[in-house]
Write a structure and sequence with these properties.
Layout (H helix, E strand, L loop, with lengths): L13 E9 L3 H11 L5 E4 L8 H4 L20 H6 L9 H14 L6 E2 L4 E7 L4 E6 L4 E9 L21 E4 L14 E5 L3 H13 L2 E6 L5 E3 L7 H9 L1 H9 L19 H14 L16 H18 L3 H7 L11 E3 L11 E5 L5 E4 L3 E4 L3 E3 L2 E4 L8 H4 L2 E3 L6 H4 L18 E3 L12 H21 L2 E6 L1 H16 L29 H13 L5 E5 H11 L3
Parallel strand pairs: 1-2, 1-6, 2-3, 4-17, 6-18, 7-16, 8-9, 8-16, 9-12, 10-11
Antiparallel strand pairs: 4-5, 5-6, 13-14, 14-15, 19-20
Helix pairs in contact: 1-13, 9-10, 13-15
The structure holds flavin-adenine dinucleotide.
């Protein structure tokens, strides 16, 4: 017999922590590890059903890193990097996810991670200097510090095409790929988007689909990955000097341990340039061409040498000259993220693959069985959206964040984001962003950028606690100056020469602001270290006494 139950309303408990970290990707997990070692109580809240962030969500066929695995991994623990063995030059998504899970287990991180819970709001209470964090499960938290490790490539960008709801075929977004493998055998498939993700997924789908239509709005530069298994000898050599390798990466431009080129392409003869680009193309990787000369990202002519070389390779690989021309990008190399591929251009020689140029005829919309452009209707069984993300700010703005005096972040950023060093936001005390807008993250090895930011945040919190401060936030002046500086640095390079997701141009209505710091990771690290060494210059720090004065003033005492 069932026991009768009384219907008492459930009141979700509010838990109290020193730090709430939002997101359990590389950033959130490292924040947990680092902050826990300070003796702080920390809870990580993750919307997904697993740790891993990017590498949980982006499980489409062909997904892999484009920074070499031996560098695209945590550097904070020597034993960890000695015991882990990467199988390939560029690890695949399953291997990277296994690595993150290994880290979570090895450092016993999971016990402080709450999965399947989305943070919906975070409100700062001036009187108590505490953040109140709400979630979609009803559970809420009170915390001294909020660390937003929500990721730069988290919020999906799915264009709202007319008629999409009427489409009767299957639809997929690469960043929400089903856990079960998808079988496209015998299907007519359309892939929309030819950025980093499209370029990885297209060769894989082409192998299965009866017909594949690639819908391209912007042709992108892609360098050959030359992916291959790593040999035991290579790994042994890396591990013998891993510490030094990592230190070099930390202070490097792109977070990878390479010696930067020192000479200009103008100082080289045509033959010397050709030899340098040949060697780069043969070696492969994102920096294959752009890093051959010191002025690749600064000087338009040097940039054009490298871009011309890349376009010639496309014309060489792709048999149909018209298709090859459509695949040739017309923006400066590196002014959009440079892609890395395995047989991307070759795919267009297959009889089952058709390139559709959306610049000639944009997508009009869908009906039950077709994707319609201005000039054609393509009958499709499945559509894959490789349309990327509302990058850098999307996941932060999806949370209703309210700072001092109830100011909403969405309002504060309505004309474009603002941060100081990518980590702090004026008006939002004790809120830290891991690799936020105006940090170098998305243009460098992101894991190195994450470690730099998290280490800085941990040291900052330790400093505040040690000196009795209860709140920290950037001054408006420091924030404006930093945003201006980031703009100036970008303007001195070709990075911001083209519309891209770096400036929000891929999302209709998003304010256009170039968000990455283009001065490199090493320079950024030095700036952040100097700010800390000068007593957190540009930040306002307040202690209990100052807070008491403020409150007395407010009530007219
Ligand atoms: C396909 C792909 C390939 C990439 N390859 C590379 C590469 O080769 N090299 C490189 O440097 N970078 C690469 N990146 C960038 C990559 O995002 C970073 O390297 C890194 O994984 C980011 O880690 P993160 O912890 O900052 O963010 P994420 O891994 O995105 O984790 C953020 C987490 O926060 C969670 N979250 C967000 N909002 C909320 C909320 N409101 N409540 C609760 N949880 C929330 C998300 O669910 C997510 O799990 C790639 C990105 C993609 C998409």
């Amino acid at each position: 017999m069932n026991t009768p139950t009384t219907s008492t309303p459930t009141i979700s408990p509010t838990e109290s922590y020193d730090v709430i970290v939002v997101g359990a990707g590389f950033g959130g997990l490292y924040a947990l590890y680092r902050l826990r070692r300070l003796g702080l109580s920390v809870r990580v809240i993750e919307a997904g059903p697993s740790v891993g962030g990017t590498w949980y969500w982006n499980r489409y066929p062909g997904a892999r890193c484009d920074v070499e695995s031996i560098d695209y991994s945590y550097s904070f623990d020597e034993d960890l990097q000695q015991e882990w063995t990467w199988s390939e030059r560029y690890a695949s998504q399953p291997e990277i996810l296994r690595y993150i899970e290994h880290v979570a287990d090895r450092f016993d991180l999971r016990r402080d991670v709450t999965l399947g819970t989305r943070v919906t709001a975070a409100r700062y209470d001036d009187a108590s200097s505490r953040w109140h964090v709400s979630t979609d499960t009803g559970r809420s938290y009170v915390t001294r510090y909020c660390v937003m490790a929500v990721g730069n490539l988290t919020a999906l960008n799915t264009p709202s095409f007319p008629g999409l709801n009427d489409f009767q075929g299957s639809t997929f977004h690469t960043a929400r790929w089903p856990e079960e493998p998808v079988d496209f055998t015998g299907m007519r498939v359309g892939v929309i988007g030819t950025g980093s993700t499209g370029i990885q997924v297209i060769p894989q789908i082409a192998e299965q689909a009866a017909e594949l239509f690639v819908f391209q709005r912007t042709a992108n530069f892609s360098m050959p990955a030359r992916n291959r298994p790593l040999t035991p000898d290579e790994l042994e050599a890396v591990k013998a000097t891993y510490r030094e390798r990592r230190e070099k990466a930390r202070w490097s431009f792109a977070g990878i341990p390479v010696d930067p080129a020192t000479s200009s392409a103008h100082a080289a003869s045509e033959e010397e340039r050709r030899a340098a680009y040949d060697a780069g193309w043969q070696a492969g990787g994102a920096h294959a061409l752009i890093s051959q000369f010191a002025d690749g990202l600064i000087d338009r002519v040097t940039n054009e040498f490298a871009a011309d070389y890349a376009r010639d390779r496309i014309r060489e690989i792709v048999e149909d000259p018209e298709v090859a021309e459509t695949l040739c990008p017309d923006h400066p190399l590196g002014s959009k993220r440079i892609c890395v591929d395995t047989h991307y251009y070759e795919v267009f020689n297959r009889p089952n693959v058709t390139l559709v140029d959306l610049r000639e005829a944009p997508i009009d919309g869908f009906d039950a069985h077709h994707l319609r452009t201005a000039t054609m209707a393509y009958e499709l069984d499945a559509v894959v959206f490789a349309t990327g993300f509302d990058a850098i700010t999307g996941a932060l703005l999806a949370i209703d964040i309210r700072g001092r005096d109830g100011i909403a972040l969405r309002e504060a950023w309505s004309g474009g984001p603002g941060t100081y060093l990518g980590v702090g936001i004026s008006g939002f005390p004790n809120l830290f962003v891991v690799t936020g807008p105006f940090s170098p993250a998305v243009q460098v090895n992101v894991i190195m950028a994450i470690e730099q930011h998290v280490d800085w945040v941990a040291d900052c919190i330790a400093h505040l606690d040690e000196h009795g401060f209860i709140a920290i936030e950037p001054t408006p002046e420091a924030q404006h100056a930093w945003v201006r500086h980031v703009g100036d640095v970008a303007a001195g390079t070709l990075r911001s020469a083209t519309d891209s997701w770096w400036s929000g141009a891929n999302v209709p209505g998003k304010p256009r602001v170039f968000m990455p710091y283009a001065g490199g990771l090493g320079a950024f690290r030095q700036i952040c270290d100097d700010v800390a060494a000068r007593g957190y210059d540009g930040f306002a720090l307040s202690n209990q006494e100052a807070r008491g004065d403020e409150q007395r003033e407010a009530v007219g005492a």
